[in-house]
Recover the amino acids of this structure.
């Protein structure tokens, strides 16, 4: 496991590289972010944003979703994939928000994960981006990048979350995840990562393919 000073140095570099790192789902409030995050499972944020543009005009609050026709929502969210389960979870989730939380998306991890279809990753996205709490949300990009950086070893995202909480400074949890996602999309991709273009190559244990000349340059820039 990497020491915190090294992790902070990597994050300093990524902060300069991705100054606009943020959640890329479009939303105006916590409910919209919750619904969009449910839709984003196994789907790109870009496609979700295309779907929610009309969806959020039709369904404006938890009550609208709670009383929605299942077949109608299925067709409206069909482009996001897995629409049978997603539509059921969206309706049931909003029904519980109405019944148990007075129509408001809850603000704690325990309450959020009690909602149908909401796991720790989704809950942490809500906490970190709708409620400005520090939270570690582990998606496929965060998992891949932190494995390569040596910050986490577990395969289970929930376990990775706790590993990262131990090495990433708490005041950087939410933003760090966005930076790691942006880096995973642009450079540290799943197949044939662009190591030669990586700004943190010198601090990565998987860096064997980088020429020594480039390593020295990256080290000096990272210092």
């Amino acid at each position: 496991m990497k020491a915190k000073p090294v992790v902070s140095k990597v994050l300093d570099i990524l902060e300069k590289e991705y100054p606009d790192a943020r959640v890329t789902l479009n939303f105006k409030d916590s409910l919209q972010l919750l619904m969009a995050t449910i839709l984003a499972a196994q789907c790109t944020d870009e496609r979700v944003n295309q779907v929610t543009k009309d969806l959020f005009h039709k369904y404006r609050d938890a009550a609208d979703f709670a009383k929605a026709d299942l077949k109608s929502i299925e067709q409206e969210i069909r482009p996001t994939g897995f629409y049978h389960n997603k539509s059921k979870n969206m309706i049931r989730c909003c029904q519980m928000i109405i019944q148990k939380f007075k129509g408001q998306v809850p603000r704690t991890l325990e309450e959020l994960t009690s909602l149908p279809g909401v796991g720790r990753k989704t809950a942490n996205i809500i906490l970190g981006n709708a409620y400005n709490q520090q939270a570690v949300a582990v998606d496929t990009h965060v998992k891949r990048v932190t494995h390569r950086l040596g910050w986490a070893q577990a395969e289970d995202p929930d376990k990775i979350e706790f590993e990262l909480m131990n090495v990433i400074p708490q005041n950087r949890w939410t933003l760090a995840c966005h930076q790691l996602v942006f880096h995973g999309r642009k450079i540290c991709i799943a197949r044939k990562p662009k190591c030669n273009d990586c700004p943190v190559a010198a601090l990565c244990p998987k860096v064997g393919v980088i020429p020594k000349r480039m390593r020295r340059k990256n080290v000096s820039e990272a210092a």
